[in-house]
Amino acid sequence: MNLSDFITNQLSFENYAFTYAQIVQAYADKSETSVQSDLKYATQKGDIIPLRHHFYLIIPPRYSRFGKLPIELYVNGLFEYLDRKYYVGLYSAAKFYGAGHQQIQKEYVLHNKAPLLSITKSTIHIDFITVSNWPQKNVASRKGDAGMFNISSPCLTAVDLIYHQTKVGGLNRMLSVLEELTEEMRWEDAKDLLSWYPHKSVLQRLGFLLNEINPESDIANLIYEHLKTKKFYPVLLSPRSSEKAGAVENRWKVAVNIKMESDL
């Protein structure tokens, strides 16, 4: 078998990625030098992309002009290879819920275990974010063209955006996305989130923003009833190390320290 035959066979099963171990096994009658030479040639042609050490993406003709694949076609295989839990999150998850007002230039994947270096290769940009409190709920399995992949629910996507706001461009960048996400948030999703989510300050910010978007929001009221059972303290809408929240007059105890500008 040569590499072209191997790739054709992989694509026939909707497999868009492979590992070095798989190709070595397929090349059982060939030398390692031959394997390396074929991989190098296919990379130069743009047929494959070495995404991580010993993990390769296959770029079929219909994606060749983009020079990359949709992340849902390979993310499950990548994290099986890395032996980690993961979910597609933040702006990458939001676009699956129709909150794609912002064209994202990179993908976001949240995972457990030690940090992973971001990937920047040609048109592929992926940020990996380590999660210390792994979600007990609110991670869904979604069917893609290459099988199932993990994605944060609308409510988990929203709190992750707020929690990681300084890493993903700031609160104003995400306001229009949060507005669109509210249309996909469901009562059960919110109840599941409140059953385990540990960051009260993020829930305060989410509740405040939900009320700004819709003063009659049932989910905002659900979050507030949950917070009332705990002690919570004034927080800044946009965290800054040099600034502290003073006296706040809204029920969420959220001090609005930025000018909110949605581009919807």
Automatic annotation (TrEMBL):
Pfam families: AbiEi_1 (PF09407). Residues 70-211 form the AbiEi antitoxin C-terminal domain. It comes from the Bacteria. InterPro entries: AbiEi_C (IPR018547). This is AbiEi antitoxin C-terminal domain-containing protein. It comes from Marixanthomonas ophiurae.
